[in-house]
């Protein structure tokens, strides 16, 4: 494989608010990697609404069923654990994995709703640690202007503001801040630059408390 020094794929995470453009850009990066490399990439959205637990989450988000806040948190986390074997196998084959949201959404949304920091972090400890987190920073005005906002549960302005605040506290040294107020082509260029500069450790790490 021509994928870096270690031969393994990279784990790339897109995070950010609803309407920050991360799903569009995650797809664009997927297409770019598949068009320009031999190793290729797969796209893994979280929540993954196709998987059994993800189907329940989907129904919750569409206001069809209810969850207690802690049960919901664990469902989002279980939804990621369900995909852990696939992520590890894919990375092992030298293929990149692009996640549209990950454990940082899990922690930030649940903390914004008032759950305890150490409790919410626990259920994701041991999941594969991303090589890079692309954090899409968007102003509330721009996000609001993009339409569709407010259709699903959790797409509420005040909650979104609190989530953004909690996300600040999760930033690590592998985070890259993307100015998501820019036009799509500018954002795409910034994402590609970040992709070209990923520094991979020999082995994929794990999330810690
Ligand atoms: P989506 O719009 O990216 O499909 O995500 C659906 C909602 O789920 C979104 O408001 C963010 C929220 N979410 C959590 O609350 N916890 C999580 O762990 C994840 C992955 C998403
Ligand atoms: Mg959404």
Strand content: 5-15%
CATH architecture annotation: 3-Layer(aba) Sandwich
Order of helices and strands: EHEHHEHHEHHEH
Q: How would you state the average pLDDT, rounded?
A: 94
What ligands are attached or bound here?
thymidine-5'-phosphate, magnesium ion
Uncertain residue ranges:
none
Sheet of most strands: 5 strands, parallel
Secondary structure tally, helices = 8
Report the oligomer: single chain
Shape: globular
What is the share of helical residues? 40-55%
CATH fold category name = Rossmann fold
Number of strand segments: 5
Task: Assign the CATH superfamily.
Answer: P-loop containing nucleotide triphosphate hydrolases
InterPro entries: P-loop_NTPase, Thymidylate_kin-like_dom, Thymidylate_kin_CS, Thymidylate_kinase
Family: Belongs to the thymidylate kinase family.
GO cellular component, one term: nucleus
Enzyme class: transferase
Write a short abstract of this structure.
With 209 residues, this protein is an alpha/beta fold. Helix content is 46%, strand content 13%. It binds thymidine-5'-phosphate and magnesium ion.
Describe the structure.
This protein has helices at residues 22-36, 52-61, 69-92, 103-112, 117-122, 140-145, 157-168, 184-196, and strands at 11-16, 41-45, 96-100, 132-137, 175-179. It has a five-stranded parallel beta sheet. The protein is α/β, with parallel strands linked by helices. It starts with 10 loop residues before the first strand and ends in a 13-residue tail after the last helix. Helices cover 46% and strands 13% of the residues. It has a single domain, classed as Rossmann fold, CATH 3.40.50. Bound molecules: thymidine-5'-phosphate and magnesium ion.
């Amino acid at each position: 494989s021509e994928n870096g020094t270690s031969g393994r794929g990279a784990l790339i995470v897109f995070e950010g608010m609803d309407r920050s453009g991360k799903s569009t850009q995650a797809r664009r990066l997927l297409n770019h990697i598949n068009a320009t490399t031999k190793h290729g990439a797969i796209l893994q959205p979280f929540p993954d609404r196709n998987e059994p637990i993800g189907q329940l989450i989907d129904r919750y988000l569409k206001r069809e069923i209810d969850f207690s806040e802690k049960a919901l948190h664990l469902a989002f986390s279980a939804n990621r654990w369900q995909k852990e074997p696939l992520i590890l196998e894919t990375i092992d084959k030298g293929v990149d994995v692009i996640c549209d949201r990950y454990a940082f959404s899990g922690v930030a949304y649940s903390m914004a709703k008032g759950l305890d920091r150490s409790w919410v972090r626990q259920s994701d400890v041991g999941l594969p640690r991303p090589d890079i987190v692309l954090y899409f920073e968007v102003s509330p005005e721009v996000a609001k202007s993009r339409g569709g906002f407010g259709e699903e549960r959790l797409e509420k302005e005040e909650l979104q503001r609190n989530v953004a605040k909690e996300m600040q506290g999760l930033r690590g040294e592998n985070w890259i801040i993307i100015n998501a107020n820019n036009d799509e082509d500018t954002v795409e260029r910034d994402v590609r630059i970040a992709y070209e500069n990923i520094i991979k450790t020999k082995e994929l790490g794990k999330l810690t408390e």
